[in-house]
Model the fold of this input.
Amino acid sequence: MTSRKYVYFFGEGTKEMKKLLGGKGANLSEMTNIGLPVPLGFTITTEVCNLFYDLGERYPEGLDGQIDGNLKKLEDKMGMSFKDYKNPLLVSVRSGAAISMPGMMDTVLNLGLNDKTVKSLIDKTNNERFCWDSYRRFIQMFGDVVMNVEHKKFEKAIQAKKDEKGVKFDTQLTADDLKELVEDYKKIIKNEKGRSFPQDPREQLQMSMDAVFKSWNNKRAIAYRNIHDIPHNLGTAVNVQAMVFGNMGEDSGTGVAFTRNPSTGENKVYGEYLINAQGEDVVAGIRTPKPISKLKDEMPDIYKQLIGICKKLEEHYRDTQDMEFTIQKGNLYMLQTRTGKRTAAAALQIAVDMVNEELIDIKTAVMRIEPEQLDQMLHKQLDKKAKEKGQLIGKGLPASPGAAVGKVAFDADSAVEESKKENVILVRTETSPEDIQGMAVAQGILTARGGMTSHAAVVARGMGKCCVAGCEDIKVFEAKQYFLVNGNKIKYGDWITLDGSTGEVFLGKIPVVDPEITRNFEIFMGWVDKYRKIGVRANADTPVDSEVALKFGAEGIGLCRTEHMFFEADRIKAVRKMIVASSKKERKKALMELLPMQRKDFIEIFKAMKNLPVTIRLLDPPLHEFLPKEEEDIKEIAGELGIEAEELKATINSLHEMNPMLGHRGCRLSITFPEILEMQTRAIFEAAAKLTKEGYKIIPEVMIPLVGIVEEIKILKKQIINIADKVMKESGTKFNYKVGTMIEIPRACVTADEIASEAEFFSFGTNDLTQLTFGYSRDDSGKFLPDYIEKGVLAKDPFATIDKKGVGKLVEIAVEKGRKVRKDLKIGICGEHGGDPDSVEFCHKIGLDYVSCSPYRIPIAKIAAAQAAIKEEENKA
Amino acid sequence: MTSRKYVYFFGEGTKEMKKLLGGKGANLSEMTNIGLPVPLGFTITTEVCNLFYDLGERYPEGLDGQIDGNLKKLEDKMGMSFKDYKNPLLVSVRSGAAISMPGMMDTVLNLGLNDKTVKSLIDKTNNERFCWDSYRRFIQMFGDVVMNVEHKKFEKAIQAKKDEKGVKFDTQLTADDLKELVEDYKKIIKNEKGRSFPQDPREQLQMSMDAVFKSWNNKRAIAYRNIHDIPHNLGTAVNVQAMVFGNMGEDSGTGVAFTRNPSTGENKVYGEYLINAQGEDVVAGIRTPKPISKLKDEMPDIYKQLIGICKKLEEHYRDTQDMEFTIQKGNLYMLQTRTGKRTAAAALQIAVDMVNEELIDIKTAVMRIEPEQLDQMLHKQLDKKAKEKGQLIGKGLPASPGAAVGKVAFDADSAVEESKKENVILVRTETSPEDIQGMAVAQGILTARGGMTSHAAVVARGMGKCCVAGCEDIKVFEAKQYFLVNGNKIKYGDWITLDGSTGEVFLGKIPVVDPEITRNFEIFMGWVDKYRKIGVRANADTPVDSEVALKFGAEGIGLCRTEHMFFEADRIKAVRKMIVASSKKERKKALMELLPMQRKDFIEIFKAMKNLPVTIRLLDPPLHEFLPKEEEDIKEIAGELGIEAEELKATINSLHEMNPMLGHRGCRLSITFPEILEMQTRAIFEAAAKLTKEGYKIIPEVMIPLVGIVEEIKILKKQIINIADKVMKESGTKFNYKVGTMIEIPRACVTADEIASEAEFFSFGTNDLTQLTFGYSRDDSGKFLPDYIEKGVLAKDPFATIDKKGVGKLVEIAVEKGRKVRKDLKIGICGEHGGDPDSVEFCHKIGLDYVSCSPYRIPIAKIAAAQAAIKEEENKA
Done:
């Protein structure tokens, strides 16, 4: 019986065999196949890794024989051997998984060196110091990685040697020093592990292979996979490759190259190299590498060869490549190639260029952009160089991307005041709807508490404004007008800088770079729209928001939160009057004050949106959110309202809720106070009537929030229809409108068939749905969610990316039940997830009609939607 | 083509035809069939009612003919006629649905009277006053009910007549007065409606029939059906029956009778009657009716006949009957029979007696008891007579049944102090776990806020203690030690009385009657256990609870809330130390103090439960619940803990949550602080080990609360197993145990298959599941739930009876998914619903293994379970 093929000599595999050979192994084979100069070697498959674990850390039968066979082939081709101490074979042993996990797993270099072969190497290279250094590095690496000797033991020994010799740098140690160090190292291993450093290269290889396979499941690798959503059962391959040396003299060298510029995308080879050096030296930073263009002068042949290889690789892979190479005594060797990482701008440039060069088709180009990456392009960024020199004082959650520089203010009023003179950053323990005005004038927002979907984060993202939330390092004393952070006391008016894309907080001002919408961006978005199947709308609450949304390509408004209009200075008073009203009559009077303002809002929004659909959500938050909290404010506002402070306090107290998220809000308010719903729908319909007369074709979509029971929508829809009829009669016009509901309560999902019998559209409010499905308050989950993600209980923050198994399952149930009853039910999503690529793909898959997101996320959502459509098409084919 | 049969002459139907003929009609037919003296008549079917609505308030073809045919038959048999003004036929027209809706629909009596027939009647009866009175009553009833003339118009006219005559009572008006009144009444109708009171009896009949059918959908009837869960499409029948008169002299009379005593169940005819009176007179209360035994003396023949009829009816219906009868000139007529309502004690007595009498079998007896009714028997009750004289000062929700008398106390400490001298009632705005000690010593609890499942309500029910919750009438000033209620100021130490079964609050002391477990109860529960398929366990947190649970027949503990043990005086300090600990080491030290106490608890509970299964839930509430809230207490406790008040305040502040219900609680605590879980499981297993050595066979069931993600239970189960292994090794014993989870998060339901791969049992925590499925906080829903139920948005409080469509659907999904992965998965329910009959039936239907409820609800749950099993068996057969 012959066993499976566990080992592939370079050239036996192809680039498509990544899963079996890992990314590195597959590409080494591929490069060999297309005739590039790759040092010989072989790959032990990822399958062996998985079997290794399945068999309880033992290898499958037949593997040893295959390794020996391939080693023999390698020795024969190289004319070198593990056993031939005169002409010894030296190899590297490297990990390589299907998905790159840089630095997570172990690597062993110079394997094959021992007390004898080190001498042959000296004979061959005539460089005693290099050889002893290589040997001591190998022992150190082997001791550390393979034999688990504490790293610091070796560090201590080398330090002792330097002290003894009175030198400062490793490079100042002589060949003899290093030779002595080799003996010291060997002693350390013997002492620590009770066994000697193995002199037999075959044994060295076996032990290194064990170590690499075991490193697949080391802690940091597991954590990395958790963070990056990489399955744990992929396994790593092991690549055994003949060593080449870039440090064999002035005709040797090492470097990295990109086929195109990874920052700008410019179609020109980019990279750097060092003469007479090994890869390590580049990393160590002792010598400064030279730009690749210099190579043209220093080694014109090698340069020409490298440029040729770049072209060949790009034509072959049809994407920008990131390569490692080594020059050994005038010979160029390719050690690695992989898809090159790039900035968003570069990614766009490359995609557009490659389509023009006919290297790739448009569909491929669309798939090439990581949607999330685009976010950088749509927001201000800190100047990179300046940022490196900035004084970092704290780090919070990257709650809303972009950069902001401003003077610190601690409340909305002073933020508004200060903003008339200077840029402002609003700093608060946590924000609440009272702070809206302050947030609106601020460049950025910094909070001490709250997660990625806290009030501050959600509102800031909606405004396209930089926000660092939940910065637990800081302690805010609003009343005293300062905050403490890691020993710094930052007072009102001090300058700080925020990086909302990383969560960093800096003291002082750091220059900011503005975003620009490039021609490439426009071309690219045109392509995206060709493939995209689902619509993309914006969450926009004001006429200004609406204009921004249109600029970013919104196809309508999926969520217009009417309550955000209530916080403006001229309205909040009427809103408060309405809330403290002691009778229905008084309440109606206060509402009548609001009516013309809301009507004006809607007229402007409808106009801005140019007949595109606009979904307006009726009042959602609990009423107490509109009332003041501080003693001071209560007194002031009671005065304004013409009532006693005690009375206002009593009202506030009576509205207090233990769990406001689960309280008297959403359509529950409309059931209790039908007059609020009446005012709002009247404002909507009067706006529609007016514009209809002016020739617009407005079809307002009235959305009832927080429906859990069909009777709720049944009752409220009847009232809405009633008001629409009245307005049409009064105005003498006819207009169409739709009445639908948010689906954000688990009960609405499982009774979606009933609800669809009344609702003309559904819009999933996945923020609330996630809260209720998990039982997490997004305001409080900061206490345990980070811990959950760190411990792998959750792979991702479910408020950022939709939880497909739980929340997604309920969404699917609702879609299925809803469409069963009403075939043409229009279904969208308007939670935060509407702008998350993974979630957009999910929405595409389950057949939603559109997603709605912050205006600034629209391009990202569109790309994600196009990619989802392309993927689906490809899966079908 | 002959049309369907829409009209049944009495005798053509049977008692089984309730759905078609309504309860009254079917029983009138049945009584006719078995030869009882029933005035002749016919029933127009409920089908006609439904057709009437389906056809837009028109009647089906062929109906008129059938009515005329039956009318003719009635006239012929009676020897009277609508048209024969000398010998006129008078009839009653009454509604009668399949399910009794007393007083909800309309009735017309004396139909057939007009200006001419009234005179014939005078000739026949020689009682002019009676005849004119009958006529004016008929016009009034007809005007009001059929023609929709405002009732008060007639009232005004009769008052005017009385004023004119200078008399006080209707009875003082003479025949002439009444004759004049008839004219006045006819004028009122003419004025109000523009048409005359119809003189044609056939027209009177037609209009009355219309009115009765329309009354099916009057507001109060719809509301009644909503409250009592009666479908709206049953429709009512109309019964047309020849009038008999109990007021035709001393040989006439009217009365009601029960075949057995409805209060005690004694097997002796019970009832009352009036000589020379109509049914109305009994209701009006002007004359006091006599007990039925007197009839034996007054009319021995009639009495004998009635007793015979009672016996015959009971043998025929095999249940206690509630009858109406009229004696007209020495002839007994039966006007109605139906199943007699009865008290719980009577119901048990009757069921047991009837089985002994071989009138019914045991299965039938089990079905005869309304489970909820039993509740009265298991709790203290206010003395009925004394209660009527009590001073009612307010009304709240009947949150936990029973009665309580005590001195008012406003906090736990003074309640404890006072309780050493006198009975105490704890009065608070709302309770929190801090109040547990006070609740434990109090006779009853009164709160101003919170619903049927507020903290106060749940804990009180668990303790079997009387509670009136959410009494919005009262305003509690805890700090000032008094409360206001409807103008009364009740101070610390004042006496009040609570009726937890009605929600009433009285000033002063009202005598209380103790419950007793009767022999009948024991016999009956024995029968119940024969038919019951699902288990019934108790929610019990202490050794004392466990003993009560066993007394009530618990088959184990389904929910032992470990945190309730934390509030006892000697423990709370250690708990607080644990919470404020600034390091893991400190926390562990505090936990080590708790370990021996928890172990002792578990030993005692296990012992009390005598090897029955005990499910122990790990710590569930957020930690801040254990910390003090008042400034005073904070200072005191900080002192006790040896820290600064500011530090304690900072800790409390850092633990503050916006929505604690959705916060850091349940298994999330165990993930963050594994040492808490370690202490608790160690206490459980050490208790098990100790008792195993003593010969007990304990199988503790460790329950992890609030699981939403399989990884949570995966991680925690591993820790639990680890501790179990350690304890077994340390103690040198072996014991079995199970690790399972509460299912109370919607996500757990839709991923129950994953969770079942780890959990060995499920227990539905339907309180939390209802909160999350609806998005209602049970602490706050009092703001809108009452409104929702009143407006018919919800038929019932979903915290009291499980919402089958929403919450129930998720439960079903979880059961199905869970059992798919683990066939023998034991599934129970431990929310408040475990003691609600409707919910128990649901649990039976979907195949749960057991329900768990407050010890005091166990008999109720058992009866509900038995009835569900019997119903299922009958449905199958």
